Structure formats: C-alpha cells, structure tokens
Amino acid sequence: MKKLISKKKQSYQIKEPLRKYLDHYGRCAELSLDYQDLLRFSNSTPVCDKNGDQTCWIAVSYPAWEQEEIFTALIEVYAILKADGNVALMEHLEVDRIDLCLFGNSKPFRIRIINTINDNFDYFYVKKADASRVYGLELEHLLSPNRIGFLTARDTLVIEHIFGIPGDAFIQKFMNHNLNEVRLAKEFVKFNERCFLRLLGDMHASNFVVDITLDVEEANYRIRAIDFDQQSYEGRIKVYLPQFYFENNPIVKIGLDALTYRSVKQYQMEERHLINKRLRSAKRRFSNLMQVMMHDRIAPREHLVQLREQLADHYKTNALFAANQWVS
C-alpha cells in the first residue's frame, strides 16, 4: 500500500481563514521560538533505543551562547501548551534533550522535558506548520475519542506527546503477551472506521500507537494516530483504510480469525454512532472548520477528482458531483 502514496507530499501554508479559526478556538499563540530557530544546531549524535539499536532520531546540541536562550524559550512553549502560559509552575522543569527525526517529510523536533524534583519526564514536538496536518489534528480532536493539544505560531506547529506503544513495536514485541485478541480486533475495526470517515491516510503501524489500559479482568486497547500529514490528501480511498497496509497485517489477521462478519458490522455501526454524537456536541465548531476547509487547497486537483469519483462509487451516490468547490 505504501507505494500508492505520493513519494513526497506537498506542504500547504496556513492561510488567513484557517488562522482566524485557530485563533478563535485558542490554537494560536505568541511564541519566542520558531521551528527554524531549532535548525541552528551545531552538533548531533545518534539516539539509540534500550537495546542499543540506532533509531531514526539524532540528539542535537547548540552553541553555548544560544543554548540557554533556546532552552528557556522551549520551557515557555511547554508552559503555554500545558499550563496556559504560567511559567511560574515550570520553575522545576528543564530541557533534557532535543532530538531531530530525519525520517519522513516533516522532520520534527522532539523536546524532552524533565522534572528536576522527581526525574519524571514528558515530551512535546515542534514541526513546520502545514495546513493538512492542522486540519488532521483538529478533526482528531473533534471526531475521535481522544483530545489533543496543539498550538500554531506563524510557520511553527507545537504538538503534545501522544502516549502509547508505537504500532510497529507493539506488533513485534507485544502480540504474543497475554493478548486479548477480540478486544484488539474490535479496536482496530473502530480505528479503521474512524480513519476512513474523516479521511485520514497513511495509518500504517509506524504512524499510530497502541495505548493499553488494564481493566478489572482484561486489558483494553486504544489505537491512536500520531501523524496527521495525510489528511484528505491522496486520491485513492484505500489509502484511508488501515486494513490495507501490509505493515498492519498481523492485526488484520487476528481480526479475521477472532471476529465474525456480523461483529465487524456491529463495531462499525457503534463507531459511526459515537462519531455522530461527538459531531453533535461540537456542531458549531465542526461547521466552522468545514467552511474553512472547503475553500482551502490542501491537495492537488487530480487527487480531489479521483477521491470524489471513488467515494461516489463507494457510497453509490452522485451527490458529491454537485460539490464543485472540491475541484474549482
């Protein structure tokens, strides 16, 4: 499936209508640091996992005369993201490490914040702002069972850390450890439905995490997207269905073995009902977002034409062909 996705997704600037929407709903902030500022690092070293294997991240460092200024600014950013800008509550926090991911389009910075009192730590991410990703984050916040914090400032996007086991690591290391196959399969069906209904693509195992919560007798699973780059971008509808990515095949196979056709249809309808409830509770905000998104350009014209045709065929309706703004 990955070969169906464009080699390099085009980046789209945040235009004024979207900026006004974000400002109205508290998604804009005045930051003393931009994504470009973090690119001024002078040295880097590979980041390895607990087994000593090299990851796709490098730890970066800055000249001494810039490091203190950058670290102070990052604490202020964290305070705005987590505590409405109350820096006084952050006096015991320090920047422990700044990592840069060299894989993918966005090349995000991952900031590790440590509590000097108890050594607890947290992360947040600084990326170059892209309208597609912003729409994806906002739709995740409104339509999924998850709430997510993010901020925009000029051409910079700041996103809170999404907790969970990376999907590829979960498949490799946790699939055989007291796994409740029915519950995992049920959650994957629901995740698959969420992605398709809001057109979030590229949800292979590296782009989602699995959050495990212990219940009274069993574990519950929540699959959460962590990359929103492919929001409504590609033309093929299969891109928006995680079931078709070969990286997800181990989970798909569990679903085929553990669930019946009627169970799958039940879970799909349950998720649609929940999305409808979330939509009703955020009706005005969702409507405002759609008005902005409808007139924005976040995909090539040929992708929109192809997606419109395939969705019309999938839902057996010609209603989408009246939406001329899709291809204007």
Could you describe the 3D structure shown?
A 7-stranded antiparallel β-sheet has the order 1-2-3-4-5-7-6. The longest helix is centred in the last third of the chain and has 21 residues, at 261-281. A hairpin with a 4-residue loop joins strand 9 (208-214) and strand 10. The chain has 2 domains: 14-160, no CATH class; 165-296, Transferase(Phosphotransferase), domain 1 (Orthogonal Bundle), CATH 1.10.510. It has helices at residues 16-24, 35-38, 64-83, 131-143, 167-173, 181-197, 249-258, 261-281, 283-294, 301-315; strands at residues 43-48, 54-61, 93-101, 109-115, 121-128, 150-153, 156-160, 165-166, 208-214, 219-225. Helix 6 (181-197) packs across helix 7 (249-258). The chain is built from 10 helices and 10 strands. Helix content is 39%, strand content 19%. The model has no long low-confidence stretch (mean pLDDT 90). It is globular, with a radius of gyration of 21 Å.
List the helices and strands and how they pair.
Blueprint: H1 16-24, H2 35-38, E1 43-48, E2 54-61, H3 64-83, E3 93-101, E4 109-115, E5 121-128, H4 131-143, E6 150-153, E7 156-160, E8 165-166, H5 167-173, H6 181-197, E9 208-214, E10 219-225, H7 249-258, H8 261-281, H9 283-294, H10 301-315
Antiparallel strand pairs: 1-2, 2-3, 3-4, 4-5, 5-7, 6-7, 8-9, 9-10
Helix pairs in contact: 4-9, 6-7, 6-8
